[in-house]
Amino acid sequence: MEACSCGGEKQNMDEFEFELHRVKQQLPSVQYCVASSPSWPEGIRVGFLHCLVALGTNVMASSTLVPLMGGDNEEKAQVIETLLFVAAINTLPQTWFGTRLPVVVVASYTFLIPAVSVAVSKRMSVLQDPHQKFIHSMRAIQGALITASVFQISIGFFGFWRLFARCLGPFSVVPLVTLTGLGLFLLAFPRMVDCAEIGLPAFLILVIGSQLVHTKKRSSITQSSCRTDRSGLISAAPWIRVPYPFQWGPPSFSAGDIFATVAASLVAIVESTGTFIAAWRLSKATPILASVLGRGVGWLVLCDSLILHFENAELLGLTRIGSRKVIQISAGFMLFFSIIGKFGAFLASIPLSIVAAIYCVLFAFVAFSGLGYLQFCNLNSYRSMFILGVSLGFGLSVPKYFNEHGPVHTGSTWFNNIAQAIFSSPATVAIIDAYILDLTVSRGERSTRRDGGRHWWEKFRTFNQDIRTEDFFSLSLNFNRFFPSH
Questions:
Q1: Which residues are paired to 105 by β-bridges?
Q2: PANTHER family in the record, alphabetically (predicted)?
Q3: How many CB atoms are closer than 10 A to CB 218?
Q4: Could you tell me the residue ranges of all domains in the chain?
């Protein structure tokens, strides 16, 4: 809009304010978008940071699960190396053939619920030898994950998730992405205060750039959480080891474990969708197509691993570098540290309190990117207030209830695990509420579509409607013809 030649300073100021807060389809102030590449020194530096974040996630998940399975430091080192190796193997195809967004495939805490259920089950408790308990638990978890992987591949490549994603609008995206970030604070903050002497200063350093170190004498539990030589990973890890399929023996299959893991897989798909959507915003891409989301979900499980999910999208907001080249460099680091075990174990010995402090900062960027989608919505509508209030409220309160009171008690362990996996995820509860309400409340009114902001995303439904979409998400060698864009 051109400025009027008359009208005084008041009108010019009003127009300036309107321009200042206008809707932006792409996030500004990003130094490198998806298709651009930083210099090699900067790319290596940021790629190493992504590797550290992925490694910290794997260490936190392994430290929780492996002791319950009867494993010692040697088994924990093997699990961490395997997770890191498979993360690299899955990350590269995701940047080539999946969504092509700068995201890293790492461990998902969602699968801890069925995995812990396997580890503490009666059939595992009768095993007296801890090593045998670890082996049999790992085989059962692998069998359940293989079946869940087939389900996840079917959901992605057969177009089911594409149909779901086509109905996503800003109203659904806001609670999904916001609670994907806020929900993970519940995992990060307790880890950070396990050793507050270094966790809180690390948090403050990241936020305000200052350093604070306490040297007071604390209890033995606190000292153990703060030290880097108590993890036992460096001495237990081999110098060179290449993870391979079925390294713990042939997988075993149990119907109850499979049902619970499939439910956890569905939750992981929902949370991955939230991370995909946050990633395209933080990497200055255009709105992601439903077909691209579908193929991204299908490529999540190229190889069988313990647990797979996305975590590193938060680092895009901190570094303002959204290049997929950086993520490919990060995958190279992960391959190196997973094979050269001593180096990977050295990095994995960083106190979890420092890792959790980093996460407390990074998760804020995902929550911020979710709230950023409110610019597409009409916040003066009572319909908007109702949908956002209900979805965010239930997304926070329902998981809190399930986490505090434990799983439901129906007499069926597998059903209890299914309910716990679904309703302990803030993002999943929020998207269920927001998705249903957005499609049903005042659906017949003419203003509903504009209030929900769907008209802003209309031209991003297919590749040929906006040239930027093809630049960001199209596949090489004309492979797009195998993935419908509608």
A1: 310
A2: XANTHINE-URACIL / VITAMIN C PERMEASE FAMILY MEMBER
A3: 15
A4: 26-375
On the 0-12 / 13-18 / 19+ scale of CB atoms within 10 A, 389 is exposed
CA–CA dist 190, 396 (Å, integer): 17
Q: What is the DSSP letter of 408?
A: -
Write down the residue that tokens 């993970």 correspond to.
184
Please state, as a whole number, how many other Cβ atoms lie within 10 Å of the Cβ of residue 408: 14
Count of other CB atoms within 10 angstroms of residue 215? 6
The segments of the chain whose pLDDT lies below 50 read: 1-11, 13-16, 18, 209-230, 305-308
Q: Are 398 and 386 in contact (CB under 8 A)?
A: no
Q: What are 331-347's pLDDT values in tens digits?
A: 999 999 888 878 777 77
425 close to 110: Cβ distance less than 8 angstroms: yes
Distance, CA of 344 to CA of 80 (rounded, Å): 9
Find the angle CA(317)-CA(320)-CA(323) to the nearest 5 degrees.
Answer: 105
Beta-bridge mates of residue 310:
105
Q: Find, among 37, 366, 317, 457, the residue nearest to 184 by Cα.
A: 366
Q: What is the phi/psi pair of residue 314, to 5°?
A: -65, -35
* Residues 6 or more apart in contact with residue 457 via CB below 8 angstroms: 169, 170, 287, 376
- Take residue 187 and report the two structure tokens written for it: 């995992």
CA–CA dist 177, 372 (Å, integer): 10
Report the distance separating Cα 432 and Cα 184, nearest Å. 18
- Tokens 């492979």 sit at which residue? 479
Q: Which pair of tokens denotes residue 460?
A: 């991003």
Sign of CA dihedral 57, 58, 61, 63: negative
Instruction: For the full predicted model, state whether its pTM sits above 0.70.
Output: yes
- Nearest-angstrom CA–CA distance, 482 and 287: 21
